[in-house]
Amino acid sequence: MEPAKHVKSALLLVNLGTPERADADSVKRYLAEFLMDPRVVAIPRFIWSPILNYIILPKRAAPVAQKYAGIWMQGGSPLKVLSEALRDKVAARLPDTRVELAMRYGRDNIDAAIAKLYAEGIRQITVLPLYPQYSTTTTASVEDRIDAMRARFKDATFNVIKSYHDHPAWVEAVAQQLTAHFAQHGRAEKLMCSFHGIPEALVRKGDPYAAHCEAGVHAIAAAAGLQREDIVMTYQSRFGKAKWLEPYTVQTLEAWGRAGIKTVDVVCPGFAVDCLETLEEIADTNAEIFKHAGGVRLNYIPCLNESDAHADALVRIAQGAHA
Questions:
Q1: What was the pLDDT predicted at 3?
Q2: Which of 45, 49, 163, 284 could covalently link to 134 via disulfide, CB atoms 3.0 to 4.6 Å apart?
Q3: Range of the domain at 215
């Protein structure tokens, strides 16, 4: 839905990004940009660049492309398709605001989106990274690009919403997702909240991500009528050999399977929409690992995606930033 021509403010939703296609070349280009961001990998560039470009990408691009191919949708990757659908839902609720979507990496990036909005005469831009929990590896990288845009568009005003891990509207939306699943399918023996991991060293240096994850899970449990101890919080998607936040999702699932746990519910509230890390890593690969260890069924509870509750929550979060 396009706003009226007189609109002078915009809401820019920002997600991580995605390869353009599910092939090795596209994945290689995307990962090269993503993994060269010093916010993501802090190794000095002169050391990291040859390792990435001559060792990691040639080895990993094709297998990762195959994983993307297994979840690809008509119109692109799930992250792209679902983010666009979510944008449209939010736009329908904000007829007096220009709502746009940008990706931090890959096509349709932040720079292009802001240049487009500026060309339309918009000078007040609220930026909402679709990362509920703040991290220097994600939200801070978006802030880096916004700072560059401030220098380029000096008469524009930018307001970045840094996190919404404990915003009541988002917490309630996730809690409703859980209770709806329980009402339809019953509860498994274990309930896991799996978040994307980050290196533990970053948290020791002050990154609030782990604290935001914990605070969010505590609030979600209360809103869903659960005790905090009813939810096991884990971290997934470890990359490299450094110690990341623990407990690790895959190791926890393996231990549960060996211990005789047969059913597990898994929700991933760190992801706004479903993507490779949820649909392939959790619902497919980790489900098979759990079964191989002795489990019977892993029930993956989808992200909020383009649900009405999610769109309503994001609107409240955005509006609250101006209150």
A1: 47
A2: 163
A3: 168-301
234: β partners: 194
Q: In angstroms, rounded to a whole number, what is the distance separating the alpha carbons of residues 162 and 228? A: 25
Query: Are 149 and 182 in the same domain?
Result: no
Is there a domain that residue 4 lies in? no
Sheet holding 124-129, edge to edge: 98-105, 9-17, 124-129, 157-160
41: its two tokens: 């990998």
Q: Does the pTM exceed 0.90?
A: yes
Pair of tokens at residue 30: 């995307």
315 contacts 94 by C-beta, under 8 angstroms: yes
Residue linked to tokens 């930033």 = 321
Q: What is the pLDDT of residue 323?
A: 58
Which DSSP helix (H) or strand (E) runs through 98?
Answer: strand 98-105
Per-residue pLDDT at 222 exceeds 70: yes
Note whether 246 and 109 are same-domain residues: no
- Under DSSP, the state recorded for 53 is I
**How does pLDDT run across 86-96, given as a tens digit for each residue?**
999 999 999 99
* The predicted structure's pLDDT at residue 1: 45
**CATH code at 101?**
3.40.50.1400
> Do 150 and 177 have their domain in common?
no
Domain count, the chain: 2
The mean pLDDT value for 81-104 works out to 98
37 and 105, same domain (yes or no): yes
- In the prediction, which pLDDT does 5 show? 57
Please give the Cα distance from 171 to 215 (Å, whole number): 10
Helix (H) or strand (E) holding 315, with range, is: helix 308-320
